[in-house]
Amino acid sequence: MTLSNRCWESLWAAGTTAEAEVPGARMSTQGSHHLKPVTLCLAPQSVVSPSCQRRHTLPASEFRCLTPEDAVGVFEIEREAFISVSGVCPLYLDDIRHFLTLCPELSLGWFEEGRLVAFIIGSLWDEERLTQESLTLHRPGGHTAHLHVLAVHRASRQQGKGPVLLWRYLHHLGSQPTVRRAALMCEEALVPFYQRCGFLSVGPCAVAVGPLTFTELQCSLRDQASRRRNSGC
């Protein structure tokens, strides 16, 4: 469930990278007039191309399914992204643990240098449209992956991570034979974002959270690959 534009570019960050401090060298001048010059023999150094150096400085990225052990980190990102904007979260900590225990294969986390920067959590649903029950249930016989939440760490927002993660998630779902489509609900302002990523609006969602209302969108996994090539996602 997505609540605002700020939320969706919400997906976590790996934090700031500390720079190593090199202590300044100090040299004593006592008795320096007795020192004789010494020729230093330095071992030849291998030449590293600029392209290799650039690759070495890039953060290592990893995409993997989440586990219950990731739940606390997931919730910290989600809480900052959603509660600060709307006062509610799509999933709370117990809900996160619940889904990551029942269906971890329907989640995907983006890690940089071992730190979670963005994630999606989903579950299976077995009806044509989302309902209030779909917010809390996982139905293993279903063919629809319900995307409960997508979030980005605040330090990693405005970097295009949301669309990249969503595309990878849909590709991941496509490798699961029983999953035929993905579905989600979001506020009206976010509909264009999901449409660029291959989702189609199917109308107002039956689910409401307090005063918030949502649009339901669906994406056929059979058509997802071709849509990806022709979209801005």
UniProtKB/TrEMBL annotation:
Compartment(s) where it occurs, according to its Swiss-Prot or TrEMBL record: Cytoplasm
Annotated GO CC locations: cytoplasm
Pfam families: Acetyltransf_1 (PF00583)
Signal sequence residues: none
GO molecular function, one term: aralkylamine N-acetyltransferase activity
Residues covered by the N-acetyltransferase domain: 61-222
Domain of life: Eukaryota
Spans through the membrane: none
EC number, UniProt record: 2.3.1.87
Pathway the protein acts in: Aromatic compound metabolism; melatonin biosynthesis; melatonin from serotonin: step 1/2
UniProt cross-references to SUPFAM superfamilies, sorted A to Z: Acyl-CoA N-acyltransferases (Nat)
Catalytic reaction list: a 2-arylethylamine + acetyl-CoA = an N-acetyl-2-arylethylamine + CoA + H(+)
Example GO biological process: circadian rhythm
InterPro entries hit by this protein: Acyl_CoA_acyltransferase (IPR016181), GNAT_dom (IPR000182), SNAT-like (IPR051635)
Keyword terms of this UniProt record: Acyltransferase, Biological rhythms, Cytoplasm, Melatonin biosynthesis, Phosphoprotein, Transferase
Function: Controls the night/day rhythm of melatonin production in the pineal gland. Catalyzes the N-acetylation of serotonin into N-acetylserotonin, the penultimate step in the synthesis of melatonin.
UniProt record similarity statement: Belongs to the acetyltransferase family. AANAT subfamily.
Name recorded for this polypeptide: Serotonin N-acetyltransferase
Organism: Erinaceus europaeus
Gene that encodes it: AANAT
